[in-house]
Amino acid sequence: MGFLRRGGRDLTPTPPSYGSAVPRPFSELLSNAPSGELETLARHARVPDAARQRILELDTRTLQAQQYLADRGITGRDAFEVVQIREDFGPSAVHAYLGLPPTTADTAVLQDGRTGAQLLDEELDLLLDAVRDLLARAGEVGQSQLRANHRFLQQKFGGRDRGLEL
Question: How many CB atoms sit inside 10 A of residue 86's CB?
């Protein structure tokens, strides 16, 4: 029952169907995931569009990395760094940008000819690269385990005659 009614008819528009023209909201893509600070910061009105996309990508990738590492029982430095990127380094970069005066954040040159928005983009790219590197290292562990298991099975069962055995 909709809120817009006229003459007994429901005039509430139906929600759009999700597909290529209407993507699912980010919050629905990871419905079991808690909303993090990065997702909240990405919604801030002063965040440039290019940075907003990188922030959301960083939020998604760090969450996926945390889940991947946890599923494989990988703890230690790599797992800690992913948490730091998601909960500390990423939000700190965005907060630093938001601390700039709104009138000059995208125009004033701050370092090496770059504006605050350009520095934020570079920092977010560095963090995204770090997450990719962490996942690559974790993937190497999985690849090593798969190769070792393959060698074991080859040695154990590979030399047998595939013909009929009685």
Answer: 22
